[in-house]
Amino acid sequence: MSLLAHDKLDMRRGWNARAARNPYFYVETSYWNGNIERFFALGEESARLLIDPILARLEPERGLALDLGCGVGRFSRALARRFDRVVAVDVSDQMLAEAKRQQFSHDCKNVTFKKSDGVALPIADDSVDFVWSYEVFQHIPTHRAIEANIAEVGRVLRPAGTAMIHFKTGYQRPRLHAVLRHLPQWAIALAMRITRQDPLMADRAFRGAPPLSREQIETMLGKGGLPVLEIFNDPTHPDGTRAFAIATKHRSV
Question: What CATH number does residue 92 fall under?
Answer without folding.
Answer: 3.40.50.150
